[in-house]
Amino acid sequence: MTNQYIPQIIEKRWQDKWADTELYRSKVDWSKPKHYALTMLPYPSGDLHIGHWFAMIPSDARARFMRMRGYNVLFPMGFDAFGLPAENAAVQRNIHPARWTYANIERMRKQLRTMGAMFDWKREALSCDPSYYRWTEWFFKQLYLHGLAYRGEALVNWSETLQTVLANEQVIDGKDERTGQPVIQKLMTQWFFSITKYADELLNFDKLDWPEPIKIMQTNWIGRSEGAKVIFKTESGDEIEVFTTRPDTLWGATFMALAPEHELVEKITSPEQQDAVQAYIEQAVKTTEIERASESREKTGIFTGAYAINPVNGQRIPVWIADYVMITYGSGAIMAVPAHDQRDFDFARKYGLKIIPVIQPEGENFDGDTMTEAYVGSGQMINSAQFNGTACSNAKGRKNPGINAVIDWLEERGIGQEDINYRMRDWLISRQRYWGAPIPMLHKEDGNLEVVSDADLPVLLPDDVEFMPTGQSPLVYHKGFLNTIASDGSPARRETDTMDTFMCSSWYWFRYLSPQYNAAPFDPEEAAYWLPVDVYTGGAEHATMHLLYARFFNKVMRDMGVFDDTAAAMKTRGRDPDALFDEPMLTLRNQGQILGEETIGHYVLASGRWESKKLIADKVEVIDRSDAPKEFDGAQGEIMRRTENILQVQTASDELTTIEVTADAQITIPTLGESCSVTQLQHHLEIQRMSKSKGNVVNPDEFVQLYGSDTVRTYLMFAFDWQKGGPWNSQGIKGPQRFLEDVWSIVVDPAKDGLAETEAETKAARNLRRKTHQTIQACTDSLETFSFNTYIAALMAFRNTLHSAKRSALYGSPAWEEAIETMLTLLAPAAPHISEELWMRSGHQYSVHQQVWPAFDPEIAAEDEISVGVLVNGKVRDRFTAPADISQEDAIAQAQDLPGVKRHIEGKRIVKAIYVTGRLVNLVAK
RNA sequence: GCCGAAGUGGCGGAACUGGCAGACGCGCACGACUCAAACUCGUGUGGAGUAAUCCGUGUGGGUUCGACUCCCACCUUCGGCACCA
After folding, report:
1. Which residues in range 201-230 of chain A are in contact with strand B, contact meaning CB within 7 A of any of its atoms?
2. I want to staple A374 with a disulfide (CB 3.0 to 4.6 A). Which of A46, A99, A345, A646 is the partner?
3. Domain range spanning residue A874?
């Protein structure tokens, strides 16, 4: 057994031992409290990158910490394996999506194992496996049978050229990124889930320990607004329903505006306006929703030629089409009140439409012709017939007296009624793609729909498919898949849409409970013990969609009775199931993103001939920046960008100079020698998200090979604020590397000149014990609050203490032994391999991971001497040490006696003296 | 554009509930070891100044005995915006 720390040897050995002894198998054990720790499952994109480690390692460390604190911990892993990239690979490289996906999963599994995480691989779940998507389909069916799945219309990115739907990420500047062909917004019939039915319940976060920003974002995403719906009739009798949050301003409605996609547009447009409207719609469909919703963008519209009657006063008002009205919100039509809505105001001014103020504060005298902006404040109703004089506050809905009165009146007259609208839309789950879970529906010849029977689930994706370069889903062409028969024997066509992958990831933590279970999505016996998820970790980029869908799904499952067996099983075990199925994950914490490393470009001296402002260089030399000559005949500076043989170099004057390197130029890079190629020149890389195309992806495997998994783990926890993330820096890893090597040598190497100390309570031993307990406290607090960097920092500081203690008489004393044992148990969650190895080497029983997290004693941790800073008028002037229990009077008296303080209070009067216990004295002198 | 967040030494970051800004580390400098380099060890390290001292947590204001922390306005960067996952 070597005394050298060689992570490459010990890590593999312990990983095997843990697997052999099933150290991380999580089994139901009702005698212990459970802890379900979940981290977002990865998409199998090909290689694990450092971002996956950053997400998973701290979660693993915390799961280990919980385990040491006596919990029976479940920490599973799987793959969210359906999705677009597999299909892109199929089109571009002619690989079947399944083959591509499973190969990636295999590779990533191996990489994941090198983490040394406590994943229980027996619980792995793959969303693209038929045994999994059988239940995804089953869930669809349940939602359908419970009236929560329906067909409706939604806008899609449509490529006329390819006759196919494009994902948002495939559309750049309104064009297909591959072909450059224009993309339009087209309405298409698709499947939806009625998430809006759960909107109000989703607004309730009472049971959740989730980050405040996430709750706010979800609340805003749902966007509940209270108001009224009112029916306007066109002169030809067509009804246009509008939703308004301001029924109190109905008398100020001077025009109506329909979304370009509104179904009435075609019908009500007058013959004279037909061509103009047609042309307008054609250009409007090219605009994305974000652009249309932008308030800074100039609003556009066109008159339909039709008029509607304002039901409250019989006024004849024009009906327009405007692109700031969204078909996806409300009814896709608005009543426009330019005097009191800025968007309507801008529109009215642009097109010369009437503006009638109907709310006016005390002391104002609004005139629609001269108003410069919409008035959105409180006031009294004017120009509103019998409502004139009614007060309108800033309150929303019924709480506003004006709105309240008007709604009552509308309801009495049957013109409108109170209504609530949500910004959130129903969940569109249809995807016109192959690589997703099939929607188990049949279209019968008579036009009716039929849901596939349970016995026929899952509807399998056919393997023998070919990807046409058109981009169309191959399911559409696959006769064997497409043609089937309905239950009555009549011919039927299968639904060719597949499901949104968010559907797969809306229930995966249930599948982890029993991935082989066949009778239901999950085994109620497992669920009764493990549910709900206690801690969920993942990126904040999932704030609204995934996390909202997950909550919705959980509530739907509850209401459909999917948890009934689980609740029954809980009861037989004496666990009260009440309210346990309202939310899927009780605690949520988000980590940030690891960005690419900033790299500095080569500093070059280039010489050749100038062509106006461009240098044609036949000689390029890379030099050290500090060796840069003051004057140089040519160009010098850092390479900021390089495209082929064109360099953009930042010169001393901070300008970019273009250098064209000739084909036969002599290029010298000191580390690589002479005659280098232009492609070996390194250019400056800014801090950006990692992506293959930018060439800034950090591969963790390299670092694991070089430093070992424990070092990479420790570094990732130490070097970043976990919630924030930040740019990767490969330099900083030296700190954690030295730290682990120090811990190793502290434990393994004999002390050079330490004396064995047996005497129990010398002052030095007391100090070491104090530090030991302070470290326990710091580590415990940090891990509880997900502050992984301060957890490691506390261990490093403890290392420093042990380092000097080792050279003192403390070495070998009981206090020393306690300290070492504590160090190894505290380190175990962060660096599981080295702590296991050292645990064994210091004569303990396998395994360190089955030890109890050390308890800290506040009395041992307490300082008996404190250092008090003394401030005069808020500025530090001196300090003194005192017993920790010094009284306020004594502290203030001592403070005034200090030489550094006297200097500053001389000739002044102390008007106030503040003592902050154990910290500082502030003297206010005048 | 809208919603959410962040901004602290050369760099990553720390700072309990408003209480001594810069813990812990990287880097750097000097010294020891070495023929030498690397490693390792020791010391120092926010900036300016010989010093007293002054300045300093994105910018500008405010509240307070005291502000990285609270309030107002602004700037920059990042995440999300419904078919990337």
Report:
1. 212-213, 216-217, 220-221, 223
2. A345
3. 865-925
